[in-house]
Amino acid sequence: MFDEADGVAGVTGLLGIRGDGRTARGSGGGGRQALVQLFVLALVGAVGLVLGGTGASSADAVSACAGRPAKTVKFATGELRVYRSRAYACAVTVAKNPGKRRQMSVQLQARGARPVGDSGRYTTRAGPVTVPALHRCIRATGSISGTSGSTGWILC
After folding, report:
1. What value does the mean pLDDT take over residues 138-155?
2. pLDDT score for 64
3. What is the dihedral of CA 31, 37, 40, 45, to 10 degrees?
4. Taking the C-alpha atoms of 82, 68, 110 and 56 in order, what is their torsion angle to the nearest 10 degrees?
């Protein structure tokens, strides 16, 4: 969106404010322009904080699914995490060592229903996938680079 070096200059230029606090149209209203500049600086700083986050980590997978952790199945390349809320179940497969793209998948099935899944070449996780599971058993399977883990029927 904006370069870090000229972000403020670009925004103030869009508003017609010169570097000395005056507008491009005239030299009056110095106090008002200073207030506008202060507002623009605060706005650009806030946008920088939002866009310049710390990056994804395996803790982000926790917030991918709503509900309480119900089961975690660890395997060599990662883990399968299953969460349960009142009426829904959610699953995500998380890589042990995120970074390079590799084949990942997650599949979740409520008893008596078709499985729901997500698969592709991901860096950190596959999923989340969610199914309605009020008073139903569920099973989940997750895999990363050919290594997999499964829960069997749970939450019955």
Report:
1. 96
2. 87
3. -120
4. -40
